[in-house]
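Sync notes, pocket subgroup
Present: LS, DG
LS reminded everyone that the earlier model was apo-only. Rerun requested with zinc ion included. Inputs:
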Amino acid sequence: MGVETKYFEVKTKGNTDILDITKKVGKTLREAKIKNGIACLFVSGSTAGITTIEYEPGLLKDLPQAFERIAPQNIEYAHHQTWGDYNGHAHVRSALLKTSLVVPFVDSELILGTWQQIVLVDFDTGSRNRKVLVQIIGD
Ligand code: ZN
């Protein structure tokens, strides 16, 4: 049993930008010494999240619209009184989506459905560089 810790970075546009990070995660796993196990993906920050989705144009509209219904951008959040950064919706959306995801892999290949991609969603109000931690546990 071992643990390996790796990182990669992505640049987002913010405003519920959805990035397909499947290839970057796959490359990270193929470069790891551990060949079978689980990968814990984690994005540092309280205004982003990681999940899986079918990465197709319809859902890339549906998911942001669903978040807009759950935690609308243009309402008052108590958080705005704290910092005045007007991203209360981004924090609430991140908390609901979660900032981590565990994915199993076998022979260095991710176990995902054909129509299932790993995505990072950036809810913040502007472009950000996001660091994704890939902590690999296995073999
Ligand atoms: Zn904030």
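DG: The radius of gyration is 16 Å.
LS: The pocket of zinc ion is lined by residues 79, 83, 85, 87, 91 (CB under 6 Å).
Action: DG to write up.
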